[in-house]
Specification:
InterPro entries: 2-HAD, HAD-like_sf, HAD-SF_hydro_IA, HAD_sf, PGP-like_dom2, S-2-haloacid_dehalogenase. By secondary structure, the chain is α/β, with parallel strands linked by helices. It is 45% helix and 12% strand.
Length: 226
């Protein structure tokens, strides 16, 4: 029997498994699009610092993005508002299909991990709060690499800590930049279309794709069982 193409499925966390919409729930801001824009702005800042060789905690980038968005909307970034938003960011709910997708991956015999731009402690807490921590064999945050995805060092450091190599792991993400980075690091990749709906033509083609997490995980399960 042929060896399965990979035995680890590595999920991105924020925006892929966990819904960032809760970040704006206690703010005078509305809508999923606003929450996704906040997440994108947060990650963009982290990427820029990684490119210039700087590193700071992910929460600082999120704080700056929230402050900017509030001020652009005509509101002050009061201490109370900021506390509420940052607290919400630490306990993001799972998307409705997250648990089923994790079950599909587990039933296929895949080991499950996350490599996330959140620090490890925050990622652990977020998974506990969402009720999904028990599915994970490993949780690796950006603090171990002191850099942010899609820098290759983040994937390499994460896989080293997980105890596997790129060719034995598939990265699942709802962000084209994450798929692109993981592919460059030598991993299999799977793109979830629930956020972007269509990939840029310049993004490396994923090995698997689907409209939601469950569809993607069924594709991964079929690949390892074939």
């Amino acid at each position: 029997m042929a060896e399965a193409p990979f035995d680890w499925v590595v999920f991105d966390l924020n925006g892929t498994l966990l819904d960032p919409s809760a970040i704006v729930a206690g703010l005078p801001l509305e809508g999923e699009e606003t929450a996704l824009a906040l997440l994108d702005e947060t990650v963009e800042q982290a990427m820029v610092d990684t490119l210039v060789g700087w590193y700071r905690p992910f929460s600082e980038y999120l704080r700056a993005a929230i402050s900017r968005r509030l001020r652009l909307s005509g509101f002050d970034d009061t201490a109370e508002r900021m506390r509420e938003a940052l607290a919400a960011a630490r306990t993001l709910p799972a998307y409705p299909d997250t648990t089923r997708a994790l079950e599909v991956a587990r039933e296929a015999g895949l080991r499950i991990a996350t490599i996330t731009n959140s620090p490890s402690e925050s990622a652990e807490a977020a998974l506990e709060a969402s009720g999904t921590r028990a599915y994970f064999d490993a949780v690796v945050g950006s603090d171990h690499a002191r850099a942010y995805k899609p820098a290759s060092v983040v994937y390499r450091t994460g896989l080293d800590r997980i105890g596997t190599r790129p060719s034995r792991a598939c990265m699942v993400a709802a962000h084209g930049w994450d798929v692109h980075g993981a592919k460059a690091a030598g991993m299999f990749t799977a793109w979830v279309g629930h956020k972007e709906r269509r990939l840029l033509d310049t993004v490396s083609s994923p090995d698997f794709s689907g409209v939601d997490l469950v569809e993607v995980c069924h594709s991964l399960a079929a690949a390892v069982r074939s």
